[in-house]
């Protein structure tokens, strides 16, 4: 095979310089031997400052175990090593030249570390090839964000932003199973707005919707982050209170009941006051199925309504 002539090398250097990827060649001492135009443009470092300079002098943040291990692996084993932006955002911390087009200021990169062999088949240099994959990363990020948002919307009640019935019931089943492995008590509370039909009939559905939104806000304001709050349907709400016994559940219910009773809803030129009735069921060894737990809480709620409303009752009392 003929040795490449000067013209061949000239064309090769032209390709290296003009390609839209970064190319760096380093020796065993991590000194730079090739530093193409892509790298020059994005680092704002010219070839006169890069060639024969330690890569660590130009990029001090590369002097870590992660980078050294990859380069040394290529030298020692003679194999290529790949790194994607999902594993590490980038190798070279380059700012984007046109960040206005993206929701990030940073270039995402895929990087390949390639063994470069001498005529004696020894790995003498390592080539580092840098691909700008910001488009892919940003689009993937947008896709993941959209998926997360769709998942959230599929689980959320549109009017109140509480968990909807379907997702809340999934959480109830999970909590039921978790509680079987724990000695901590968990309480389920169900409540609804007293005489809600009268509110709708007297003031209209917009006022009724605002009443539900107000209850939902007070509901969340009076709950812990670990409490699992949901809208079960219409004017009916549910909450799981992890690691909460019956006395704790009573305190919670009384606090919520008073907060709602003391609140006036102003909507459509009307001022409306109302109350809620609540039922509590503590998960115990007698509750064999998640549906039984819900039925027990509903029975306690029914007792509150039958006893005059605006109060809390506990299943089994």
TrEMBL record:
SMART domains: GGDEF, PAS. Its cofactor is Mg(2+). GO terms for biological process: cell adhesion involved in single-species biofilm formation; negative regulation of bacterial-type flagellum-dependent cell motility. CDD domains: GGDEF. GO terms for cellular component: plasma membrane. It comes from the Bacteria. SUPFAM superfamilies: Nucleotide cyclase, PYP-like sensor domain (PAS domain). One of its GO terms (molecular function) is diguanylate cyclase activity. Its EC number is 2.7.7.65. Pfam families: GGDEF. This is diguanylate cyclase.
